[in-house]
Structure formats: structure tokens, C-alpha cells
Amino acid sequence: MKIVNGFDLLAYAKEKKLLLPAFNTTNLEMTKAIIKGLNAVHLPGMVQISSNNLHLSNPEVIAYMMREFLKGTDTPVGLHLDHGKSFDDVKACVDAGFTSIMVDASHLNFEENIKEVQKTVEYCHFYHVPVEAELGAIMGKEDDDVNEADCKTDPALVKEFVERSGCDILAVSIGNVHGLDAVAKIDLALLKRIAEVSPVPLVLHGGSGIPFDQVKQMRDYNMIKVNYGSDLRRAFIQTFGEAYEKNHNEANLYGLSAKAVENVSKTAADLVLIINGLKES
Ligand code: G3H
Ligand code: ZN
User: Fold this and answer.
1) Does the domain spanning 6-276 belong to CATH 3.20.20.70?
2) Is 178 annotated as contributing to ligand binding?
3) Domain extents for the chain?
4) How many CB atoms lie within 10 A of CB 52?
5) pLDDT at 144
6) Among 2, 138, 189, 236, which one is least packed by beta carbons within 10 Å?
């Protein structure tokens, strides 16, 4: 398949009542593994890469790999910029063929956040590319990016934020955290209040480590996209770590990389099945 447009992917998930997992990639093997995992279980999802991780390659390389790995597949997959940090990154990703974009300006004040999102929306909507924005900061660690601000999404600001910014989906801060070091304390009552006033579907960051029964319940509160980064990275890194522990002279990079692809692909497949209630955790 071709990379699927973000609006179409969101509409497809809504129609089928599915949660879309958005899996973070860093490199070729992770990208291959995510697509393999989604295709193995015939469920839709997104491959996403953060501005940080883009420094290792570039949007053109990621989009090229996506197109190659999607050849011969038959499940809808989109390509998303995660935690877009600059307008240059946004433009580079849209120009490379990314099919949805996140602009992360949640560290700015309300008005500045709206301004940043408006600018991104104006550009992306020319190309029919949906935009994810974030209101309320999400604590924790994403690779080398540490955020210590704990600022939950205020339901009183949601409607105005969405309407003025023009965003198409909204990332919320409801006790979710990035990474596996901190423990998420999900406030489902807060999510319910946000869902009641949000004109657009919602996004959950920091999916790794959140109990699956809570994630599944979020389907009732207009949640459409759930981000998983650390769970997949751990599966990847563990493969190499275990091999090295067993043999400090281990040098079979090809063999271990292939094994890492299998492990990550299995993790991705399990996650998309479980959050959609199609497999027991
Ligand atoms: O944007 C990416 C994520 O929110 C991933 O969070 O590493 O805790 O799963 P996680
Ligand atoms: Zn995130």
C-alpha cells in the first residue's frame, strides 16, 4: 500500500471503532518492524518519528523507507511527525510525504501555543495533512528529551484552544508520562471532562506502561491515537543487550538486527491487538 493520508486514516479508525497505535521509529530496523507487525495482524496504525530522532537521518530517508517497506502490504499505515519542534521540521516532513504532523508547543503559554499551531495548520492544510497539537505538558523522558513540567490539560481551555488553533486532533495531559521510569497516574474522570468539550478526537502520549484496561476504556472518551515509544525501543535494545551479556565478543550484527526486527514487530502486533480488545494482555 501507499502511505495513507492522515485524515483518511483517522476516518477509517473512527468508522471501525479502532484505536490507532502510533509507534515511534528511530532507524531502518524499527521502521521495518512496525510495518511488519501491523501488517501481520491486519490492523491500521502510524509510524511516527520525533524531531529529535530525525537528527539521525532526515524526513526524506524515513519516507523512502516507509514506501519501500509498505510495498506488498495490505493494512493502512500513516507516517507522522511526533513532537514537531520547529516549523522547519514540519515543512521538511510535509514536503517529504508525511501524512500527519504534530506541533509540540505545549511548553509555551496558551496564546503562543495557539499561534504556533495556527501557523502549522495553515501550511499542512494546504496539503490536506492533519495536525496534532498538545495542550498541557506531559512529564517524563523521551530519549534524551526530559520534561519535568507537570501541567494537566484544563478542560475549560480545550474548546477555545481547538477552535482557535484549528488542530485536528488533541494530545492531552491526564497523568500520562513519557518513558518507563515514571509511573502514570491516569485521571479518567479528567479525560471524560475533556472529551465532553473537545470538538476533535484525542491523543494519548506515553502509552508504554499504562495499564491496558485503562487504555481500552479511553475508547469511550473519544481517544483515537495512542503513542508507544519505549515499549518498542526496549524490545529492540534488549535483543542486543542480552546477546552482549551472553558473549562479550558477539559481533553478528546482521543476525541480531534481524532478531530485533522480529522482537519489535511482535511487540507492535501485540500492542495493537490488546488495546483494541482483540487479544488478552
Ligand atoms: O510521543 C511518543 C510517546 O508519547 C511515547 O511515549 O515512550 O512512554 O511510550 P512512551
Ligand atoms: Zn509523546
Assistant:
1) yes
2) yes
3) 6-276
4) 16
5) 66
6) 189
